[in-house]
Amino acid sequence: MISSPILRTTTCALLLGLLAPVSLAAEADVTSRIERLKTEAQQLRDQAEQTYQVTEPGCYDRFRVNACLDDAKKARLETIRQARALESEARKLELAERQRVAAEVMKQNPGAPQQPALPSPAGDARIQPSPEAERLRTERAQRAEQAEIDARAARAAQDVERARARGKADAEAAARAEQAARDRARYEERIREYEEKKARDAAGR
Hints:
Layout: H1 4-59, H2 65-108, H3 131-204
Helix pairs in contact: 1-2, 2-3
């Protein structure tokens, strides 16, 4: 008679063999969705940067430079927020998948560690950053980039303000020159009238 532990082991092996194709298919679907989300997120980030790079120079040709730059930055950040949402969903799926794999390992071998085994050095010697560390790194890079964008916008606004001040000074100088010309013309007209009157008076004597 077959002992009970052997029977249980055989039964588990048969069940795992039947469930393995389903499990592999589900894992492939999840992996495919994760990769698709990451790809879409990267495309959105690229689109945000490209759109901003194209829009920003044109703002300096407009009268309301700061408003144009603000609109461009808002559009860029909105697209980046969409990318972050996709990245967040991908991280959640990755976490859920790791937890599922860990649960399956525990079912197959109750004495196994709670977390899936790490890849062997021969398979992948790189240390993968945690999602939290990656998020912080991304946020720091985005803050630095945003600070640079704001600095460029501030410098552009100062240039526009200086150009506006120069234009105002030039306009005022031109107005003063025009007023001086009109004053000279009126003075010369009065002198001419005075000379003509003087000549008429002299002729009438």
